[in-house]
Description:
The protein is an all-alpha fold. The protein has helices spanning 2-21, 26-41, 45-55, 63-68, 70-75, 83-101, 103-127, 148-161, 165-181, 185-213, 225-228.
Amino acid sequence: MITGFVAEARRLTAEPLERLRRGRLPLAFGSAAAVFLLWSLHFSALGASIVRLISDVSASTPFYLAVLRLPASMYAPAPNLPVWGSLLQVFVVFGVAETYVGRRRTLTVALTATFLCTLSGRIMCYLGPGSIVGLPWISRYVSDTGPSAAVVALVAYLCCVRRAPRTLTILLTSMVTEVTLLPNLAGREHVVAIALGLIAALAVPAADRLRVTGVRSPGSGIVTRDHAGLR
């Protein structure tokens, strides 16, 4: 198990490390810089107000504001995670994802996971403690910021597309253990993030195949890539 995990880790990080040596991980560097900037702003009253204005999200935040603050909330300080943890998570995972699936897909998966995890947290808070998946009412006011949901979803997604089942097993085990020992908002959202990463690994290739192999509609005049060479 350990040997297999080490082999997977080497396979996942070999090319990103080579790109890092050449300084070709702009999304990883930019995302880490965004995390550091928002964290640094907290040390002044004005800066802290700006961070709250552009990134603070909780289940009690009006939905339209939560959507507007979505990109910044992904890089904002997390309530229970030190800044070095956020920096390390973002730089490593975004760097690996950027290498293997590209910047656009990395951001798409990360932002979608952040949004849906935040939405799931709102639903769990709305259901309340009387539901098996509900949360105490006080959870509505817990800050729901930070990169963890995006990072967990990306790791699950990468484990599938890069064939790393041992790493995925470790991730699943750690997240289930977390939500068992700490059944709070963050723990629940991390489990949701794993599910979203797995769904993305299934949905993205299927969508690509539909775009590539779609059949032309009668009379539409649209030629797909598979048929373009026959013309």
